[in-house]
């Protein structure tokens, strides 16, 4: 829902930007549309906050926050420019700079790390380890995920609400892929966070667990 609200707010902003009339009524209409656009953006923030609070962080929710922030910032820039009666070219220039800043922040932030360590994704059964296992090495979570899986697999019985992972092989294959990547060090393919994650999991032996799940040995679920 937050994506749709932000999109509608963006459309409202576009309508205001393209307004050509200069009468008093038109100014009132522009300000009214602006207030509505800001309200929609605020509702988008509220929606994504409620989703995050209930179900944790995901890439979609983080990108939704980024987009809502972009729209809100453009609204502020536009009405500041509109109030001061400056040329639209100045607004466009500031918007490009602001958009570039948002893109830079999004690229610098480690979404995978935030998802795992600040607000894990959830389902009705608890933490969504199926989703968490799809995170990139940037999350620096592979060792912790593997140890959790190993511990519960050795018990051969665990409550579904305590560990919701529909495909444990995902994290196993990711660990093996990273181990294989750095089996022979190549500076050309090195990624700092990749390598940092590799240092944490390079000694892990996944063979036993991989064989266990490839044989599709069912785990007993206690409700």
From TrEMBL:
Protein name (Swiss-Prot/TrEMBL): Uncharacterized protein
InterPro entries: DUF4153
UniProt entry keywords in alphabetical sequence: Membrane, Transmembrane, Transmembrane helix
Transmembrane segment boundaries: 31-49, 61-80, 96-118
Top-level division of the source organism's lineage: Bacteria
Pfam families associated with the record: DUF4153
